[in-house]
Every structure is written in structure tokens, then in C-alpha cells.
């Protein structure tokens, strides 16, 4: 009996070892990386690649755990609610952090998770049929401004990042293009190629081969910079709207109260893993651009984007529903 | 012919020891996940996707395509033996496949499914090579408006052949459509009937619903009977189909190949539509339509063939356009993208070894699967020797595992039980649950394409009769509607004449 | 055998009435969702219309059942069905919090005892054995990841 109590006490005391000591030998067991997207998508691919790249640096296994649902909000909720011991992290894309909160009632805010780092971004692009009367990004904007409400553009879903990215530009220049939401960029591409919508709006990979084959004319990116894969497409800098950039980006988050030492260690390790030329090549194969940011920059990016997209959402009448 | 030479090169790629092994492993794993209720091709491919990152692109797609095909072969097993749809594509097989099993013809049903799958799979790959690019262009002309008309046609076709009275079938269709509206509306981001649950924003889980409505309800219904009519294990020499069964199955297999191939181009819901349509056609043209729902051979062979023909056809949009039309080919796409291979109009010229290697491996996979599945038939059928009181509890556990393994969601488990009770009550009073399930799958997309079409046309309803694709489907719709009306009038006259 | 027995037409009609009830509930729940216009239907349009359709069709089913008064009786919820259903429900609720092995061991023990009419000690033996075997197959061989719950291994 006494032995039992002593044993329990000993167990309890090991559990109470100061966090710093724990942080020093962190990680002492495998780390779970929650990915709020289904296997196979861009986010999942990057998560698995970076998990593999970071294993030798952390000297621990990193296990990817896909928790899809609710446009990423289900998995993100799990990450922010996880035990803040550094053994449950989340690899997310920006939509559940900065877009979904405007249309869904989510149980997290930028204060419920710690941003650790981000790896880079991928732009969205607007493309037209080859016979559309515009040859540059500037002419595209002029064309849609001249005919309010005439054209349609396919996007990844109403209130989604792609739509907000496009609307951010359209509101700024005072144009009205009717959004037609589809289930994803592939479906948008199919409907665009079939001539059912005027513009393709979505990520680069699905449309690249068709642009190369001359079936699509890609004119405007939603990133400030241009993209080497689509040399004819203007960046937002080219039309003087660089500050309205909205892109798809990926990063690492952890539950809010994770010890700072652990966060610092993770930031360093993941930034190292994401900065290699090999990882750069991986990203480029998926049409993305490497841009490694640390915890501070990533956190600032999230808050700024959340506020900006909130305004766009409000301007086009998207609001959080009661149910 | 040029492509024949390429195909030979493709076989050279597929026949290397490593790729052969990968194809075999894929087929084996695919069969396993296909047999397990809940896990379908999608989950099976997703689970092994990370493994393929380390392979070369040809090896990666060969293995994944093997899983895809294998899951489609395996899906029919539990449908026939236990009335549990392995995946959406084998919902129809539950109807007559299980009835065949009850009559001691489980072995024949499984054998015919495997052989039909082989024929359908092979024919669809030939079709893919021959007219793939042509069909891809045709597919592009199907916009939201035509998609809506097409799905409406599919629902009508099914209501025509359902076993329950028309008013009950209609009620089940509407109930299915209504259940399909749960979840976040894609066009306005409005969370409908989610009661604040993020889990529900994606809608009710199809797998949980289908296993509950078909499998769990079947067990509950059986338990009410003093001497339940459960599947009988056939004796060894009754394992193979009889000459009569083969005669009935052969034309159905050929028709199923055609139907499956054509409907493989329907985005998103191709497998379930093609199987239902094939069943409907078989029942409609059968000389003995009264046999359907009571173990009609054609009602198993046709849809099972269509199912695998659809798999081959669903590769067309992926390979020719670089656009996955169904979730399973989306996984193939990402496996290719991670290696920097972009499918699309340039795939054949830029990566011939991937393209032709994949085509060759599809042929090969079909051959491996039919060889793998035929011996498995006797093993699976021997499961039926287990007494009902022991088998049923084990089946229920496997259902729980299957549903849990999808998302680890407690809600899905609750849906499984609720659907089981619902299915039990509905079927007790002869409400057919198959139309409900089809409507549930189609409902979401139907509503979206309906509203998308109106958004594109800016509120003009004429959009539904414009464009070549919509017109084609409208003619079919009118034809079926007219035939049905005529049949009904004739039927009335006949019953009127028969009445004293 | 305990359980209910009721005329077929009554059950059939009851299902019809239940369907219309579901339709009413659907229409009421859908009412606050914007329905938009004919040319531009909103998210509430389809659910509302479907709700109304279900009310009508459910009633039509009920009326049809009343007219087909054939006097046949239907047995409902026999003792075995009830036990099976309640056990399944409990297992579904306990599956994640308690974990796979304990939940399934209890579930199978009960079902083997009632459905297969085994003596209780054999049912428990088989139930525990089967739950461990299934755990081994799905967790270890197929690597599916079953809920651990309170089961320590």
C-alpha cells in the first residue's frame, strides 16, 4: 500500500518537472502533425514533405494525421485545443485561419494558436479564353470595368480564399464580375474550358497545361509578384495594386500555450527544413513559391490578412450565419 | 498503328519486376479495402499515397491505379454476402446480389461480378485509348445546366425501376434529397441544419448512411424472423455459374461495359449513376423483370461490369485534360504532381512512359484482379457457413470499424445507428431505400448545378434547354418519361381488362 | 417472442405520417434561411421546397396505406432486434471514449449470448477473444488506428 502511494508520488513528481527541463530534451517522443486537409491535396503533400525533411533535424518521427472537414476548420479547432506540449502541431493553409472565420462560427482566434513559421505561397490566377479581347492584366481590368455584371468567373467556393482574393481586386478597381462557385480548381477548369464561365479563377497547376497548349490566356495573378511559370500574367504590382495581394500560403501552428523554448526550437528546425534547395524544388513542382517566414512575420501576416479579408467579406455581403 | 507500338513500350514499363510487384500489391490492398465496408478506393489510395512519394512517377500511378481497380472489384463482396455496400458503386449490387446469395448462388454472383468486372475494365481501357480525347471534349460541353438535366434523368430512371410503389419511391427520393441538403451551402457559405457542428458542415457521411440503411437494417430485419432467410453457403460444385446464368449475364456484361464507359465521364458521381442506370436498363429490357429484386443474374452482372468500366473511363478526364472528375482520380493527380508530372494535353508527348505504363498496368491490373478474385470467392463464400447469430455481431463490429476509420468521428457512428433504425422501419413497410441513397448522393450536386446554371444565365431558365449536351439529355428525359407514361397507360388498360 | 405486432396498414401509414412530420420540420428549419428569388434561388430554396414536397408525399403514402387495408400483420422489434439495436447504440456511443477492445468485448459477449444463444460464459470467452483478434487484424496488420480509449495496449 505504502509502496503504491510512493510510486504514485514519484510518478506525480516526474510529471511536475519544470517545463524548461522538458523543453531541453524536447522532442523525446514522436510528434504528431495534424493536417486539416484530406490526403493528396497540396497542403497534405507539403506537410508530408516537410515532416520528412524535419525528422533528421528534430531527431524524432513526425507523424502526419489528416483531419479534414469543414474547410479545414475541424482540424484547426483540434490543433488549437490540443495539449500545448509541443507534441501536437498543425500544418495548415491560410484559409481556415483567415478566411473561414468570416463565414463560419469557429472556436479559435489568432490568440488560440501560436504561429510558428510559414514555408511559402502559391498565387491564384485569372485566365480567359484565347479570343477574349484583352492581352494584359491591365486590359483585363479595363474590360471588366467597362461591362459591369456581364462576365462570370469560376472560383473555389463562395467565401473561400480564392473568391475573396478576386473580390478584393474587383472592389478596389470598382468592377463587378459575377462569381460562380465550384467544388475546386479542377471543376472550375473543366467549366472554364467548356466555355461555361468567362474567367478561370483558381490555383495554377490545373490550368498550366492548358495555358501551355494555347487553350487559356492567363492574365492576372493575385500575388504582388509575377510567376515564372506564367510569364504573360501580370502581378498586382504591375497594375499598382501590390498591397491587395491575397495568396494561398502554408505554415506551421501550435496550440497557444506551448512553451516558448519548444516553439523556438520548432521554428528553427522547420525553417531549416523548408529553406533547402530540395524543398524549394518540391514547392516549385506544385506551382508554389518558397518564402520562409519566422514566427513573428507569420503571425503578423495572419492578423493583417484576417482583417483585410474581413472587410472584403463584409463588402460583398458574406457574414457569419447564426445556425 | 502508332499507339500500339507505344502500348508495347508501356507493357515494357509495366512488366519490370518492380512495377509488376507494385501493381500486385496495389491490387491486393485495393481488394482488402474494397471488401471492408466503409473503406473505399479513396481511403485505400489515400492511406498508401505517402508511400508512393518515394517511387518513380510510373510506379506510383501503377500502384495507385491498382488500388483503385482492386477496391472496385472488392466492393461487391460484402454487398453480395451481407448486403453491406463496400462503397457507393456497389449499392445496386446489394439488391440482387444478396438475393442470389440467399438462394445459395453467392458463389455464382461473386464469380460473375469478377468476370464482368474484368470484361468491363478491359473494354473501357480499349475505349480510353481509342476515343479518349474525343470523349474528353464531349465532357467539357457538359456545363452546370446539362449536368442538372442529366442528374434529373438519372433519378427518373431509377424511380421507374424501383421495386416499391411510385409514391413511396418519390417520397424516398425527396427524403434523400432533403438529407443531402445538410451541410454548408457551397454557393453562399450558409451552414444548413448543422446546429453549430463543424463536423456537419461537410454534410452527412454517405458511408455511414449507406452501411446503416442497407447492412445494419438487414441484420435487424433478420432478427425479427423466427427462421430468417439468410444467405446459404453453396456446396463446392455449386460455386460456379450455371450455363443458364452465363447466358443471362453475358449480354448484361456487354451492355454494362458500354453504360459504364459512357457514364464514367459524369463528374463526381459517375460510379453510382452508371451502376443504377445499368440496373435500370437490365430490368427494363429483361423478359423477366419480375425476377429483379429476387436474385436476377443480369441485375448483378450488369451493374458490376458498369462499375469497373466507369473506373477506366474516369481516367480520361485526368489523363487527357489533367482534371480529375472524381475524388479517386484526384489522388492519382496529386501522386503525379508531386513528381512534377502534370497530366493534360501534353502528357502523352512529355511523359510517354507514365501514360503508356499506366495504360498497360490497367490491363495488367484487371488480369491480376480476376485471377486474384476467383480463388477468393470460395474463401468469402465459406464465411456464410458461420451461423447468423455469430456472423451478425461480427459484421456489426466491422461496420463500426469501417465508419470509424474514415474520420474518427463520433457523429458518423451515431449516423450509422440512426440510419440502421431508419432503414429497418422503412424497409419493414416496403419503402425501397436504394432511391433514397442515390438521391442523397446526387442531391447536393444537383442543387449546385441548378443554381450555378441560373447564376451563369443571370436568372434565365432557358439555360436548361440550351447547348448540345443539355438537349441530348432532355431528349433522353422526354423519351423515358414518355415510355413510362405509355407503359403506365398500357398497364392500366391491361389490369382494367383483367379485372372482371 | 416479445415485441410488437401491428397491422401492416397501420405501420405503413405511421411511416407516411412520420415522413410528413419530417417534411414539416424541414420546412420550419429552412424557413429562416434566405430563399432568394425564382431566378436566383438562395440556400433556403431547395430545403423549403423539399420540405413541402415531403409533407405531401408522406401524406399520400399514408392515404395509400389506409386504402390498402389487407389485414396482414407485421412483427416489429422482437426481443433479439431490440437487444441488438440497444447494444449497437451503446457500443457506438462508447466506441471512442472507452476504446475498441473493451467496447467490442462487451458488445460481442452480449450479442453472442442473445443472438447465438450461447451460454453466457462461452459468449464472454468468444467475445473477448474476438475483440482481441479483430484488434490485432485491423490495428496491427492493416494499421488502421482504432480508438485506444482506456485500453492500455
From TrEMBL, chain A:
Keywords: Signal. It comes from the Bacteria. Belongs to the UPF0065 (bug) family. This is Tripartite tricarboxylate transporter substrate binding protein. The keyword Chaperone does not apply. CDD domains: PBP2_Bug_TTT. Residues 1-23 form the signal peptide.
Automatic annotation (TrEMBL), chain B:
The chain crosses the membrane at residues 20-38, 58-75, 108-132, 138-158, 170-190, 261-281, 318-341, 353-374, 386-404, 470-492. InterPro entries: DUF112_TM. The keyword Transmembrane helix applies. Keywords: Membrane, Transmembrane, Transmembrane helix. The keyword Transmembrane helix applies. Residues 20-438 form the DUF112 domain. This is Tripartite tricarboxylate transporter permease. It comes from Rhodoplanes tepidamans. The lineage of its organism: Bacteria, Pseudomonadati, Pseudomonadota, Alphaproteobacteria, Hyphomicrobiales.
Automatic annotation (TrEMBL), chain C:
Residues 16-147 form the DUF1468 domain. The keyword Protein biosynthesis does not apply. Pfam families: TctB. It comes from the Bacteria. The chain crosses the membrane at residues 12-33, 45-63, 83-114. Keywords: Membrane, Transmembrane, Transmembrane helix. This is Tripartite tricarboxylate transporter TctB family protein. It comes from Rhodoplanes tepidamans (Rhodoplanes cryptolactis).
